[in-house]
Design goal:
globular; three-stranded antiparallel sheet; alpha+beta
Length: 176
């Protein structure tokens, strides 16, 4: 399975990517509360989120993350998938954290992320894995400015030159 990883670290093709477990120290209080709710309700067979990599299912979702945070976009192959979750449910939980302290509501919303087979109207799937292998470097940090400039014109990830070019590279790889 070919997924996408956005990462500030530089990796070579064939290299294994492991989690950068200190990401929580950069979170604001509300985001940290979301992580705590998720970890408190996490099924036993799934590792703690800080010990996982988050991989994108869709190139457009990876590029949207790249647009916000920069880094490299890699085409990767996961070693073992522990969970597939809809990231929109994380946004929903974050909204709830901002509006209520009701533990029952927050727990119920946190459990929604872990439920299999449920999703929002337009799901944005992330895969939780312990490691993955780099198959291709698709986008470099130096491409961020031209990408964001092009996005301002198109107002759509899928209509940017970078998306179309990268999708073409992936398609060509699949045909070889």
């Amino acid at each position: 399975m070919y997924l996408y990883r956005v990462d500030k670290r530089k990796f070579e093709i064939g290299e294994e990517i492991q989690p950068n477990t200190d990401f929580e120290q950069y979170m604001d209080e509300e985001s940290m509360k979301v992580e705590n709710i998720l970890n408190a309700n996490r099924p036993d067979q799934i590792p703690v989120r800080k010990d996982c990599l988050f991989l994108f299912f869709e190139l457009s979702a990876a590029l949207n993350f790249f647009k916000k945070y920069g880094g490299y976009v890699y085409g990767v192959e996961p070693q073992k998938i522990y969970h597939r979750g809809d990231m929109n449910k994380l946004d929903n939980l974050l909204d709830l954290v901002r509006f209520t302290d009701d533990e029952d509501i927050l727990t119920a919303a946190g459990n929604e992320y872990w439920k299999g087979g449920t999703h929002t109207f337009m799901p944005c799937y992330e895969y939780l894995v312990k490691s993955c292998i780099v198959r291709k470097c698709l986008v470099k940090p130096s491409e961020l400015k031209s990408f964001t400039d092009n996005f301002k014109i198109t107002d759509s990830i899928e209509r940017t030159d970078l998306y179309l070019h990268t999708l073409g590279k992936i398609s060509n790889d699949d045909n070889q």
